Amino acid sequence: MRQIDTERNLAKTIFEELRSGIVSGELVPGTLYSVHDLAARLGVSRTPVREALIQLSERGMVRFERNRGARVLQTSLHDLEEVFALRLLLEVPATFRATGRRESGWVADLSAHLAAMRAAADEHDEAAFMAADRRFHHTINAASGNLRLADHVDSLRDTILLRNTSTVNRSRGMHDILAEHARIHELVEEGQAHAAAEAMREHLRHTARLLLGQESSETGDAEPPFSLDWTAFPG
């Protein structure tokens, strides 16, 4: 048996607490927070707080300002476009590769995440639904054999959460989103790599169009000035 690294566990807990505070809006976008004040609020020393903030800055969630602290960033429409452009470039070929590899076990995990999405949709539980959605995508990306890709895509999703926006019950319902994931799952299970990758591409493009259009109209822009013609996979 090995000793538990309490400092490492503490740093992880602090990171998750700060990340949750940013996503929920408790830590307000545009606001500057000192390491000292955050440490006092959490009842911990400043060192693990600073380490957590460094990780959050790498995810684009905060920006350090010299001798002042860290400012929580606000996601712009252009940021959203860039996030979906990257997701298209990464997740489409990852789906193709994962489906083609047919490693044991992960498809069963994917089925479990889809079932969790379906149960959450039936219960109208958006938080549980989006958590299962996130696990669904991460499972496919990790099954591609590139864990760095999977973790990077997971961090990109935090950028979307920074804007505190969602298409759920605004542009579409949870069962609509579920249907798109069910189609991806079906093609993955059948081993149809090209079709599964194409289904992932259409899912991401559809989500991006709805989200960008929705947010653009709320900011007063008549048309979202973005291009979603990213073709990462030849199809």
Summarize the structure.
The protein has helices at 6-24, 35-42, 46-58, 77-101, 106-122, 126-143, 147-162, 174-189, 193-218, and strands at residues 32-33, 62-65, 69-72. It is mainly α. Helix 1 (6-24) packs across helix 3 (46-58) and helix 2 (35-42) crosses helix 3 (46-58).
Describe the structure in your own words.
This protein has 235 residues and is mainly α. The protein folds into two domains: 6-72, Arc Repressor Mutant, subunit A, CATH 1.10.10; 77-218, GntR ligand-binding domain-like (Four Helix Bundle (Hemerythrin (Met), subunit A), Up-down Bundle). It is built from nine helices and three strands. It has a three-stranded antiparallel beta sheet with strand order 1-3-2. It is globular. The relative contact order is 0.13.
% residues in beta strands: under 5%
- Strand arrangement, largest sheet? 1-3-2
In round numbers, the mean pLDDT is 85
Shape: globular
Please work out how many helical segments DSSP would assign.
9
Helix content: 55-70%
List keywords for this structure.
235 residues, mainly alpha, Arc Repressor Mutant, subunit A, Four Helix Bundle (Hemerythrin (Met), subunit A), 2 domains, 3 strands
Secondary structure topology:
Blueprint: H1 6-24, E1 32-33, H2 35-42, H3 46-58, E2 62-65, E3 69-72, H4 77-101, H5 106-122, H6 126-143, H7 147-162, H8 174-189, H9 193-218
Antiparallel strand pairs: 1-3, 2-3
